[in-house]
């Protein structure tokens, strides 16, 4: 049973590292801006996605600070 628990713990740790990795989120604004400039999305869509990205980056920063409150 301890082996299963250990494996589950490692999987959860890896998933958490990936979820809280800021690098992929930090790359998205440039792609989003390109989509806006190229006319593939409108300003409203851009603003909505940008707000979500900023919220996500704040969540990552809070996690790194050890904040548990949303």
Automatic annotation (TrEMBL):
What InterPro entries is this protein classified in?
GvpG
Look up the domain of life of the source: Bacteria
Q: What is this protein called?
A: Gas vesicle protein
Q: Which organism is it from?
A: Streptomyces griseochromogenes
The uppermost taxa in this organism's lineage are: Bacteria, Bacillati, Actinomycetota, Actinomycetes, Kitasatosporales
